[in-house]
Design a protein that fits this description.
It is built from five helices and four strands, in the order αβαααβββα. It starts with a helix and ends in a 7-residue tail after the last helix. It has a four-stranded mixed sheet with strand order 2-1-3-4, with helices on one face. It is globular, with a radius of gyration of 19 Å. The protein has one domain: 3-Layer(aba) Sandwich (Glutaredoxin), CATH 3.40.30.10. By secondary structure, it is of the alpha+beta class. Helix content is about 40%, strand content about 20%. InterPro entries: Thioredoxin-like_sf (IPR036249). Keywords: Signal. It comes from Bradyrhizobium frederickii.
């Protein structure tokens, strides 16, 4: 391999590395704290869950489900799940930036979530 090709490949690799997010920096995520038998969780599952992955909001904050019947994941140890389920917490870079307590129905859910995402700088469609 010629020196010019090797140099070009090294520069290309450096450019790709700089374009990737730094390790430890994460986009926002929507954490849904739920438990078995939760009627409002089931309603969310029926009304929002089937379409959420296709929305701009999911691009800004992918949905992550956490069962409160199991130990909290280590990366969420600083987040209080609250007493009610479901509780939706928007987490960015390991910190809570907003929450929705309970499921307010499909007419209000996206409006509340958009307010949180916009206030955090995680505008739907951009993360």
């Amino acid at each position: 391999m010629s020196r010019h090709v090797a140099l070009l490949l090294a520069l290309l690799l450096a450019a790709i590395t700089l374009a990737l997010p730094a390790t430890g920096s994460r986009a926002a995520e929507l954490v849904m704290f739920e438990r078995a038998g939760c009627v409002w969780c089931a309603r969310f599952d029926a009304e929002i869950a089937p379409i959420y992955g296709k929305t701009e909001e999911s691009q800004a904050a992918p949905l992550r489900r956490v069962d409160l019947g199991r130990p909290l994941p280590a990366d969420l140890s600083g987040i209080d799940p609250g007493a009610f389920t479901p509780t939706f917490v928007v987490v960015k870079e390991g910190r809570e930036i907003g929450r929705i307590r309970g499921y307010p129905g499909d007419a209000f859910f996206f409006g509340l979530l958009n307010r949180i995402l916009t206030g955090s700088g995680s505008t739907p469609g951009r993360s």
